[in-house]
Design brief:
Bound molecules: zinc ion
Strand content: 15-25%
Radius of gyration: 20 Å
Helix content: 25-40%
CATH architecture of the largest domain: 3-Layer(aba) Sandwich
Shape: globular
Largest sheet: 7 strands, mixed
Structural class: alpha/beta
Length: 280
């Protein structure tokens, strides 16, 4: 155990020093604090109450999820120590479990999954025969976890014909894309009428979304920060239904799964010809 602590301190110090030299003292301090907090969480998960939180992606239960170091600050209760799922994955797993795609079951449905996450599985074994999931990412290494077909493509110029998919899943991707309006238009283009794109983005506590000008290396390379106040305006081509955590779980479950209110799933439907022409 002592050896583990010494190694942990050594690793945290090294990483913190590297971050300080590259991005300044504040970034180094955040890195050090995140390591320290995650070490305490490890102890609490070993010796504390094991039933305070549960991960619906892998069914792990324990005392606390790990904190996330986002460079400029630390976010508590994010990462599952067992499967690595974050709060957005927990939200989407529950959504899939409780709601999604039920209206499409029985059909031969095609799903395009951009930036595929290992924690998200679309189908039960029984449904697998009628569902085809295609993974897509601009980088081949972004799809290493995906089973089945993988297609390397840019979300701003999607390499598929129009009206090719019944559903699209696009979670925490748009904040990395240079032209997110173009990307949303492409998602709209490749959706079949009546199909839906399931979109999630990270929200910053700011009154209006803002461009960062270039990828922020301390913020996972994001090129913009979205505000929850105005994000929906970007989805104007679709009929939008925003799903907040409390619309699919109880307050007790929200605490158990540690999913904050800002983890919203935007169900963005493409109109069929006899629908009114605009979603707004
Ligand atoms: Zn997990």
């Amino acid at each position: 155990m002592t050896g583990g602590i010494i190694n942990g301190v050594r690793r945290a110090s090294k990483e913190s020093w590297r971050r300080t030299r590259k991005f300044g003292a504040h970034a180094g301090w955040i890195c050090l604090c995140a390591h320290a907090q995650n070490y305490l969480i490890r102890l609490r998960n070993r010796y504390g109450n094991q039933n305070r939180v549960t991960c619906p992606c892998c069914n792990w239960h324990g005392n606390s999820f790990r904190v996330l170091d986002v460079g400029h600050w630390i976010i508590p209760q994010v990462e599952c120590p067992n499967c690595g799922a974050h709060d957005r994955h927990r939200m989407f797993c529950l959504f899939l479990d409780r709601n999604a795609f039920t209206s499409m079951q029985g059909k031969n449905i095609r799903i395009l999954h951009f930036g595929p996450e290992p924690h998200i599985h679309f189908t039960t074994k029984k449904e697998k025969e009628s569902t085809r999931v295609i993974a897509a990412d601009i980088h081949a290494e972004g799809m290493t976890c995906a089973d089945g077909t993988r297609v390397q493509t840019d979300v701003q110029r999607i390499a598929f014909d129009s009206e090719s998919f019944d559903a699209i899943v696009c979670i925490h991707l748009l904040e990395h894309v240079e032209n997110d309006i173009l990307a949303l238009h492409e998602l709209f283009r490749v959706l079949k009428p009546g199909g839906a794109a399931y979109i999630m983005v990270p929200f910053a506590p700011i009154p209006a979304s803002r461009e960062l000008g270039r990828p922020d290396p301390l913020l996972f390379g994001h090129v913009r920060e979205y505000s929850q106040q105005d994000f929906e305006q970007r989805l104007h081509e679709f009929y939008v239904n925003a799903i907040a955590p409390l619309s699919i779980m109880t307050p007790e479950e929200q605490r158990l799964f540690q999913i904050p209110d800002h983890q919203v799933i935007f169900i963005c439907q493409k109109a069929v010809p006899d629908w009114p022409s605009s979603g707004k």
